[in-house]
Target: Glycerol-3-phosphate dehydrogenase
Amino acid sequence: MNKSKIAVLGSGIMATALTFPLAENGHEVHLVGTHLDRDIIDSIKKTGIHPNLGLKIPSTVKAYQLEEIEEAFEGADVAMSGVNSFGVDWVGEQLAKVVKPGMMVLSITKGMQADEDGNLYILPDIIKKYFTKDLVDSVTWSAVVGPSIAGEVAVKRDTCVVFCGEDQESLDKLAHMFRTDYYHVWTSTDFVGMEVAAATKNIYAFAAGFNEGIRDKNKEENDRYVRFNYGSAVFAQGQVELTQFMQLLSDNKTLSPRHLLVGSGDMFVTSMGGRNVKAGRYVGAGIPFSEVRDNYMKGVTMEGVAAIRVIGGAMEPLTKRGIIKESDFPLLRHLYDIIVNDQPLNMPWEKFFDGEK
Amino acid sequence: MNKSKIAVLGSGIMATALTFPLAENGHEVHLVGTHLDRDIIDSIKKTGIHPNLGLKIPSTVKAYQLEEIEEAFEGADVAMSGVNSFGVDWVGEQLAKVVKPGMMVLSITKGMQADEDGNLYILPDIIKKYFTKDLVDSVTWSAVVGPSIAGEVAVKRDTCVVFCGEDQESLDKLAHMFRTDYYHVWTSTDFVGMEVAAATKNIYAFAAGFNEGIRDKNKEENDRYVRFNYGSAVFAQGQVELTQFMQLLSDNKTLSPRHLLVGSGDMFVTSMGGRNVKAGRYVGAGIPFSEVRDNYMKGVTMEGVAAIRVIGGAMEPLTKRGIIKESDFPLLRHLYDIIVNDQPLNMPWEKFFDGEK
Model:
């Protein structure tokens, strides 16, 4: 196999975990910390250990502080954006300075942004805004999506993902670089549909906490019967709305097997736990979201909540413009009401599944 | 609301749980035990308590032993089949004697049967075989599908289901009889598609136990990183194959919101636990299925395992006939190998999601 050089900006757990299969395949990997990652990079330089991942990273992966970014990206075949959705504008600015024609840009950030008219954009489009038109056209754009908990990749647990993007040849090259006997990679050129599925599933992770919260409120912890029926119906309505988002924004209108991996599989793993589920649990227990945000989970980054704010905020302009119907996305609209208008949880069941009749 | 009379054959937990919303709506409900339910009916007659459900059933529900079936079904508007998939032929024989023209037959049994050529039949079609042609045509056929744990319905936890069948008017009437503020009912005339989704999801519940079993085998119980990536990929491939089954057997080719409730939602809840998941966990831990069946879970009814045997057994004849491709249903084919040929678990990842490339 030809060896490639991969430079990564952002040394969070997901970006770092992806260096494991790359190192295993013998590639040269340069991991660059953001200004927020200074301690992580220091730790790796000193001990080889990524503190949040709790693991020694492969010895061939070379760590760089942000001021060394130019050296790190010099001559790279692949430029990876490894920050979370809050850092995507910043990463666009940075990459604009170090990405060179011919590189393959690979994004692992899940999320979307909206403008005032409710138009929704996938995050690679946000990064592109910071590039010159020539540079945009002289590189290829791809992203990693699918159900993938970072630490599991790092400790070589079986993981199935999709590399999506505009250019099949780049996707094939990238997939080849990353594939191991535990990291299974498929490809798709439905860039927008896949990115939309990956972004919207976070929304519904917040709702996945409600049933446990209702149990907390009603002190049902020793009750023989739980609320799986509630949770599975919410999961299914999440699937309905995720599918509709894909159909709305992508030219691809059907749920292919790989869309099911990215939409259904990723929503499944995200529903199993995490910060968004925890926030939803508090709301299910009857605590107004403003209190969850300001007290119970003060300072905690919640990408699902951010996605509800962004994508939920697009509902009104999109409805006014006649692009979606008032009856579309009833769950997201209710989640938006909970988060932005501090409304109590009151699940609008009758609006689900195309409306009860 | 007009009051109706509903007679139910089978007094297992699901059939009995459904008498709760019916009784709440003021309908007359007759619950008839099978020959295996004698103790349950005795208990209800004496104390009002259903022993397996652990609950007092509504006082207006009248319990009958099997020898009283004719009295119980006399003048009923609805004849419910409330047994599990192993009892469906027996229930056909019994209902053939007591169902009268004009009744609405409602099935809650999930499963399929196959003939030697691999043709698959939904269970209402099996019941029909025991009816005269005239009787088949003089009643209507419907079924209850969707994510619904029996006990949760009985204790009034929110539950979303689909009533599917051939006749919209009957579906509307039945939905009206059952709907309460916690039992939410949608309808669909894709009888076959919905029944296939409900039947096949049990198959994949068995596979949902593998990841925990691998953890058991590797003694990873205190490990920071679990195997959610594995579980979610298996869940997603289950969704792929369930979808393909629906497309194969139903005229309806797209996943509507209600199909997602019945397919995706029900597979979600089934994956959360139960006997099929437990059996899969043993296999994941490295125990041959024959030992699980004969020792660890001797005598335990496993509908998912039965479904793998029946539906998995249809793979070979359907492939020979050119109706499906060799590469279709790789997960089900492997589950069949595990259960019927006692093969060890060795997940064929590269065949998933239309084949890795």
Notes: The CA atoms of residues 77 and 103 of chain B lie 5 Å apart. Chain B touches chain A through 57 residues (CB under 8 Å). Chain B has a mean pLDDT of 95.
